[in-house]
Amino acid sequence: MHRIFFLIIICAACNSTGKRSQPPVADSMLPFLKQRVNPLLQNLETGTAKKILDSLLPFIEKKDNYVDRCSWLRCMAVVYQLEGKLDSARLYADRSLQLALEKDTTQRQIMAGKIQTADIMGDQHSLDSALHYGREAYYIARNIDTPGLPLICLKLYNIYEKIGDLPMQKKYLFEGFMRSTSPKHKTVFAANIAEYYDKVNEVDSALLFFKALLQDSSFNNPYYDAVRYETLGALLSKKGEAKEGLSYQVKGIAISRGLGELNAQSYFNLAATYRKLGEFKTDKALLDTALAYVSKEKNWALQKKIWRAKAENLARQKKFEPAYTAMDSAAFYYQKEVDSSIIVQARELEARYGLLERDNQIKSLALANKAGEEMRERQRKAIVRICTGIVILGLLLFGIWRGKHKKRLAREESLRQQLLRGQIESHFLSNSISGLQGIIRAGETEGAILVVQQLGRLYQLSHANAREPFVSLNKELDALTSYLKLQQILFYNGFDYHIDVEAMPEGIMIPPMLLQPFAENAILHGFAGQQEKGQINIHIKKDNSVLYCIIEDNGSGFQGVETNHNQKRSLSTLINQERLQILSRQTKTAAKLTIVDKKATTGESGVRVELIVPYRMEG
Amino acid sequence: MNPPAPLRVIIVEDLPAIRKDLEYLLHQQPGFTLIGACATVREALVLIQSTRPDLLLLDIGLPDGTGFDILEQMRPVQSKVIFLTAHQEYAIKAIRYGAIDYLLKPLDLDEFKEALQRVSHAQPLLEEQIAIASQSFRKQKLQDNLALRSQQCVQIVGLEDICYLQADNGCTTVFLNGGKKIVTTKFLKDYEELLSGTSFLRTHHSYLINGTYIDRYHPKKGVLYLKDGTEIPVSLRKKEIVDLHFKKLL
Fold first, then answer.
1. How far apart are CA B48 and CA B35, in angstroms?
2. Distance of alpha carbon A109 from its chain centroid, rounded?
3. Which SMART domains match (chain B) (predicted)?
4. Could you tell me which residues are beta bridge partners of residue A595?
């Protein structure tokens, strides 16, 4: 009978919790559900309740509020559960839970859905699953601190009762009792605690609790009253206070009758009291009625008890023959009870075993989960580290690249300046001027004028050229020509030169001062101390993105050059070698400098310099 | 009495225009006769070997080496030498350390004449002079020795042996540790320049002191005492330099 309480109270509790989590929702269905539907359910008026719920559906759908919808679905589930249509009840409960899982962030709807599912599953004897859902609801309830917790305790107690786990029953009953805040809930727990004590034969403790119930007049409900009176009466009668017990029992049964809730147990209990009072006739009549009820309930144990009670009744009336017959019947039903209890035990074992397995599964799942979580955490950390590493590496590489790039530019710049300085500050200027002085002293006016002209032009061009990373090929060739002309005079026509440029488009730009150092080498080093007249041939042609430059002389070649005497010669060569490497990296085009002593190749004397120079187009 | 035989001269200079100029200038100087000119170390060595010249006009920078290369390879040196150089600070200082004559390019006619007159009376170079100059030039580090040229001879002294130098009528007297002194034909200013960056300190327009020989200093009196007791005046204008020197020592 207390089951009815659960359903109703759970329904109400969930609604109230739902309401709590969603404070003042305008036009909420909740108050309505609570006020109109709950009483109907409490009174088992499922038909009326269903009608009202059906009529609410359009509004619920229109409002599209998940709290309302979950509550409505749960109400429907309760209706079907009360009607015994457990599959349908399960369907609605599932939908409610599903919706809650999708939408609910407060966990309250999820909790309500879970505990309801547990309840229905308990009715369906899927105790392991029921326990699973019940526990989940329990943990949610503990986390979110809800007044629904006692009811969940009750639910769990109910499931454990079905399983037959006494310690767990006691645990949840007392937890529920302690946590109950409303007298209503407390009473329910007290009733169940009394029943529990009865079950473990602690009638005194049970009485204590039940008397406590009587102190409470705050709650008025016929079912509750019926249960209260009947149970208290039965307990008193068991304790030997049959008369006092009887008055309570009669009170209770009267209420039950009014509700149409009479059952075999009630009659059996009442009969027992009468039997104690010696009113065997009434006892017999009541026991027969109980038998009539119990045959519908298929409760073998109770049937056995009734038959035993009948036998006792007959025996006390000294009617031993019928008493034996009654005992036979009792024995028969005892056999049935044992059989069925074996089945029940088997089922319990199965349930327990299932539960254990389930527990292990959950544990291993939790363990796997934890391991997975740790793994994921590690992976996350690793990913973060790797990402950070990559980013830092990237930045570093970028920095290095930029640094290198800048360095290259700076290096090229400094090399260029070095060449320029070399030209201006070295002997060249002072030699030129000293030479010019000689020419003037010798009275060679024309030569002197030429020297001044070329020197002026050369310096103007070199200065302008050396400031830019790229200059037009024409300007560079002008500078080269000026240089050669000047040297020709200063060397008293000690050499001839020829510059040959193959036809190429306008606007070709090359790095300045690339060619001149090689011409200089030929003049200063190649022709020095040589009797034969020097000859420099410069040939330039274009091929795709590079210029081929060849500077050839007929000088003395490299002989003696390997010694440290010719530092300047190798210095300018090294500088230009490096400039070409930088240029190659900058333009991503192969650049090359090859210097060969022709003696080793063609057998002629002199040096052949080949340059592959990447060029740019102007603009 | 026969006039002295003219000095036989070889010019080693790589730029023909300058070489011609030198030939031209030399041609105008009585008492000198040009016996050869060349542009490289290699040519020069051959020429010197075969002609044994009295005087070399020697360019420092040559296509296949330096003037020092020539001097080092012609042993014993029996020639007087005048170096020719463009304004290369380091080469000049090296040459002066060796107390060797030199001429700056472009050539100044008066300097040219003066240098020729000077060497005509001088002795051929000492090997030590060449060593000091060429080592200073090669290693780009001045040597610890200095060639001092007096009227009569050239003497090599270690820098640490010089106590102080005193200006004396356009000449410079170098006082050495142990009381010896050498009168050189150079100005004190030349030595101040030459010894800049060493331990020498100009305390007075007439005095250049080796700092390592200073015993004590009387700022008020403006007098420095050397270890041997010599009093060296400190002029007002040089006081700051001396003060700074002592501050550094502290």
1. 10
2. 24
3. LytTR (SM00850), REC (SM00448)
4. A609
Question: Which residue of A492, A565, A566 is in closest CB contact with B17?
Answer: A492
Q: Is the pLDDT of residue A10 over 50?
A: no
Residue B196 has pLDDT above 70, yes or no: yes
Segment 85-144 of chain B within 8 Å of chain A by CB: 86-87, 105-107
Q: What is the mean pLDDT of chain A?
A: 79
* Whether residue B11 sits in one domain with residue B129: yes
Q: Which two tokens stand for residue A545?
A: 């993105």
CB spacing of B66 vs A434 below 8 angstroms: no
Q: Residue B18: which CATH number?
A: 3.40.50.2300
- Rounded CA-CA distance A305/A234 in Å is 15
B106 and A430: CB-CB below 8 Å?
A: yes
On chain A, the residues whose CB falls within 8 A of the CB of B24 are: 438, 441-442
Task: Chain A: give the shortest CA distance to residue B45, in Å.
Answer: 12
Residue A294 confidence (pLDDT): 79
Residue numbers of the domain that contains B91: 7-138
Lowest model confidence (mean pLDDT) among A116-120, A332-336, A589-593, B37-41: A332-336
Copy the structure tokens of residue B231.
């009093």
Min Cα distance B56 → chain A (Å) is: 18
Q: What CATH number is attached to the domain comprising A570?
A: 3.30.565.10
* Residue B130 domain-assigned (yes or no): yes
**Is residue B201 in some structural domain?**
yes
Q: Is A438 on the interface with B (CB under 8 A)?
A: yes
- By C-alpha distance, the chain A residue nearest B22 is A438
User: Is residue A388 domain-resident?
Assistant: no
- Beta-bridge mates of residue B56: B10, B81
Give yes or no for residue A483 having a pLDDT over 70.
yes
Does any CB of chain A come closer than 8 Å to the CB of residue B25? yes
Burial class (CB in 10 A: 0-12, 13-18, 19+), A124: middle
* Residue type at position A428: F
* B2 belongs to a structural domain: no
Residue B20 to residue A491, Cβ atoms within 8 A: no
Tell me which chain A residues have a C-beta less than 8 angstroms from the C-beta of B39: 528-529
Cross-chain residue pair B15–A525, CB shorter than 8 Å: no
Distance from C-alpha of A490 to C-alpha of A430, rounded to nearest angstrom: 12
- Cα A24 → chain centroid: 34
